[in-house]
Amino acid sequence: MTNSSDSHGSIIPTNLYKEPAPILDKENPFESMMERFDLAANILGLEKGIYNYLKNPVKQIITSIPIIMDHGDIEVFEGYRVIHNDILGPSKGGIRYAPDITLDEMKALAAWMTWKCAIVSIPFGGAKGGIKCDPSKMSIGEVERMTRRFTSNMLDVFGPDKDIPAPDMNTNEQTMAWIMDTYSMHTKKTQTAVVTGKPSILGGSLGRREATGRGVMIVSVSALNKLHINPKNATAVIQGFGNVGSVSANLLYEQGVKIIGLSDINGALYNKKGFNLPDVLEFAIKNGSILNYPKSEKISNEELLQLECDLLVPAAKEDQINSHNADKLKCKIIAEGANGPTSANADSILQNNGILVIPDILANAGGVTVSYFEWVQDRMGYFWPLSLVNERLERMMDEAFLNVYKSAEKYNVPLRIGAYILAIDKVAKTLKIRGIYA
Ligand code: GLU
């Protein structure tokens, strides 16, 4: 299982993790988001009322989802949707299916979506949702019934102008198609713009599946350029080989970056001379894992993170870089493909060691950016060629990187806090102009 911001279309099925569990900071995700938020809010001198407004999600829904399982008994699942903010526009964010989902996690992830959308300048607020379940233990029919019943429970919440879901951990294009169909059946008309990340035959955008990994590649190249490292002489390590990790690795490889470390849920690999990514991808599709890829040396996950390299892309789970290992990292840049891969406790250690961290709310914002393109195309009923999608994505990611960089320089803070400052300032200014309705 991967916590990549956008695991839809993952080519690697869920498997049992064999390595000993790493020591984590196990921070409460909402509190660790708030720690960074507080730092940025202090620097901005955010007034108390606005602070409280932006801290609290506008809506938190917990809903029961009863399903008739294949064996004939009823099982009841718990579903969530947290809308953190809708000041900039309809709320936007993925839906994940996992057994360990918590409301606090949804709250943090929804807030991150608010900041992400503000940073890449798209007219959306932030949301996140999910169902506490283990889809690997369910039949397709059960997952479909659960998805449709969840959608039907959320009919008043979802909507092309209100709240627009997308794929996330363990959900994919098919899940979005079911949500779109259920919503459309109830509203008596086909409404493709109610979800993004759909199959292209149903109004999905070309390039959406690769968008998060492509965005990671774009900001990584910008960061290498900032440090005057030619991508063609750079080395990179990618943790995770789901949709985000595998696409980032492949696109960085196409830029001439030497990929010396890779991992998936089964283990990690090292190749001093650099992996041939198309070959690894083919192997992974055939074998369901990269683990036994021949031209490489097996290493542990901790060894992978501690490899000497220019760029490290954590695109797996949260808390991977934490106070227990941050001091041991030997990379120059971290591009956060996953949501929350670095614990708040690790931030200052990385900063003291001069590691440039491209924060998740910037690095993995390519997915929601192309979701926005998809929503626009659905509403126009006019679809763009892939070249246009990729060109516009590149322009928006480049602009966002530059704006975050400028904000960090202006306030003399790391990129993460620069990104929070930029986002909070934008949402706060919009809130002030809109005013409080009473
Ligand atoms: N789940 C993705 C994310 O965390 C995409 C959300 C979207 O496209 O709405 O960024």
Give the structure's gist in a few sentences.
The chain is built from 14 helices and 12 strands. With 438 residues, the protein is α/β, with parallel strands linked by helices. Helix 1 packs across helix 14 and helix 3 (103-119) packs across helix 14.
Describe the structure.
By secondary structure, this protein is α/β, with parallel strands linked by helices. The chain has a domain at 57-194: Rossmann fold, CATH 3.40.50. The chain is 43% helix and 18% strand. The protein contains 14 helices and twelve strands. Helix 6 (211-226) crosses helix 7, helix 12 packs across helix 13 and helix 13 (386-411) packs across helix 14. It is globular and about 55 Å long. The model is unreliable at 8-18 (pLDDT under 50). The site of glutamic acid (GLU) has 13 residues, from strand 3 and helix 12.
The named CATH superfamily of the domain at 57-194: Leucine Dehydrogenase, chain A, domain 1
Q: Proportion of β residues? A: 15-25%
State the end-to-end distance: 45 Å
Percent helix range: 40-55%
Which residue ranges are poorly predicted, with pLDDT under 50 across at least 5 consecutive positions? Answer: 8-18
Kindly report the spatial arrangement of strands forming the biggest sheet.
9-8-7-6-10-11-12
CATH class assignment of the domain at 57-194:
Alpha Beta
Q: How many separate helices?
A: 14
Order of helices and strands: HHEEEHEHEHHEHEEHEHEEHEHHHH
Structural class: alpha/beta
What radius of gyration results from the CA coordinates?
A: 21 Å
> Could you give the count of β-strands?
12
User: Hetero groups bound?
Assistant: glutamic acid
Q: In CATH terms, what is the architecture of the domain at 57-194? A: 3-Layer(aba) Sandwich
Largest sheet: 7 strands, mixed
The pLDDT mean sits at 94
Under CATH, the topology of the domain at 57-194 can be stated as Rossmann fold
Shape: globular
